[in-house]
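SUBJECT: A protein chain and its fold
Encoding: whole-number codes for local backbone shapes
Chain under study, with its fold:
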Amino acid sequence: MQIGVGLDRGLGLSWDEYRDLGRYAARLGYDSVWTNASNGRDAMHVCAQWSVATADVVPGGIGTGVSVIPVGYWSPASLASAAATVGEISGGRFVLGLGAGALQDRAFRHSLGLDDRLRPIATMREWLTTVRGLLAGETVDHEGRAITLHGVDLGAPPPRVPVALGALGPNMLTLAGEAADAAALNWCTPEQVSASRDTVAAGARTAGRDPSEVAMIEYVRICVDDDVDVARRAYVRALMGYALARPGVNKTLGYRGHFGRMGFDDALNDLEDRRDRGASESELVDAFPEDLARLVGYFGPASGARAAFRRLAEGLDVAIVRVVAARPEPPSITAVMEACRPD
């Protein structure tokens, strides 16, 4: 199993801090350094900076990746071009993660001017087909609901750039097995990792692929502090940002559906009811059940982080220590990196 470290774009890092923390990850022995993506600061530029900076520590630099880019913000050709560029800069040590984002949400589609008929599975199938083809050096002709390309290529093919699919539910996991180089999981119990691998493997076999060709990647959230309550509150705030459904949203879809399938439904329904009656974020953090929070990540003293991370990473090919900073200061970031450093 490879071990990476994930630095959330919400940490508010400067470019110098990005580079310094990348070098620090390399010195600690991490195999790769990752970031998430959305509109705003370009995640692939962050990865390129890491690749160059970590080459100061490890010949050629350590691996880097984005998990994941919501596709609605890009065109396939521009995304493939950017990924190919980072692939060249990194010497083939870059992984591109693609995700549907909130494509199931009509408001999200409307905000980006996307076709209201688009649906996540069909859309991501088109993205995987076209982007992987472009990155493989093919000339792509494709006419679909989400993507239309006629005779598009990148010129010279880049070094191999694996494409991971952000996948939570069974249909997206099946698609990852059928058409991606990896499945990028998030917020999973070990049992969910195992079940997800089985679903991905079944999808691969259906498509005539060897399941071993499809890697399993996941962010594992870790927050450390000697003050356990400080760590708990920071961690639970991060968790609730994914787990709680907005009013009026279908709770069987997206992250809310994912947490429901893992047995969080009753607790989340209660929290959502409290929120809708006017409870503050602080009150919701206090009410979040600790036993459920610990099923998908770790918060507490640094001394317990490594064992918890290893338990949660069981069954993965690439396990990424996703840093949750207990306090808004660099030592909270490096404390997590040090606590979970590879053996």
